[in-house]
Amino acid sequence: MKSLLENTLLVWIGAFIMTLLLFYGIDHFIMVAQGLPLNFDMTPAQ
Fold first, then answer.
1. 35: DSSP letter
2. Average pLDDT of 7-16?
3. At CA 30, angle to CA 35 and CA 43, rounded to 5?
């Protein structure tokens, strides 16, 4: 049972990491397509 639990946790962690990578990949692609500066500072502009 422990092996199944560990595998499930790894699947969830893997899916979370893949989602983050996909989100930032799409964001990066959209910013390149619009000619926007590529910085990862997500704080609001003053």
1. T
2. 91
3. 85
